[in-house]
Amino acid sequence: MSEVDISSLRMKLLDLREELQVLAQTANASAQVVELDQARVGRLSRMDAMQAQAMSQATGRRRELMLKKITAALARMDEDDYGLCRSCDEPINPKRLEYDPTAILCVSCAERSE
Ligand SMILES: [Zn+2]
């Protein structure tokens, strides 16, 4: 089994975090634009506006969750706790971490918890 390349995974996580933060800022900015637009022109029906808002809230929640996972993964890296399964303490397959650097369960524990 190959070694986990923590430093490249850390870079990946930091990049991802930055991307999400930029996206969050853009989303906030465009949400404000929609509100202003609506007040002035009244183009969107109330239903449409509510739907759009619900969608952007769901996206925002997913983004927040992802940010939390990333922050937690970075903290585990700092504590040398990274790459071990939360459930059975076995090392997580590096390929899995490569695919999802925020993974906290090994493949078999993840399958069991699904
Ligand atoms: Zn496990």
Write the layout of secondary structure elements.
Blueprint: H1 6-41, H2 46-78, H3 94-99, H4 107-113
Helix pairs in contact: 1-2
The structure holds zinc ion (ZN).
Report on the architecture of this protein:
It is a single chain. The chain has four helices and no strands. With 114 residues, the protein is mainly alpha-helical. It has a domain at 6-80. The longest helix is centred in the N-terminal third of the chain and has 36 residues, at 6-41. 7% of the residues are buried. The mean pLDDT is 87. Zinc ion (ZN) binds next to helix 4.
Main attributes?
binds zinc ion; mainly alpha
Please provide a brief summary of the model.
This protein has helices at residues 6-41, 46-78, 94-99, 107-113. With 114 residues, the protein is mainly alpha-helical.
What is the percent of helical residues? over 70%
Alpha-beta classification: mainly alpha
How much of the polypeptide forms β-strand, as a percent range?
A: under 5%
Poorly predicted spans: none
Radius of gyration: 19 Å
| Separation of the first and last Cα atoms | 25 Å
Mean pLDDT: 87
The beta-strand count equals: 0
> Cofactors and ligands present?
zinc ion
Q: Any idea what the shape is? A: elongated
Instruction: Note the total helix count.
Output: 4
- Sketch the topology as an H/E string, one letter per element: HHHH
Major sheet characteristics = none
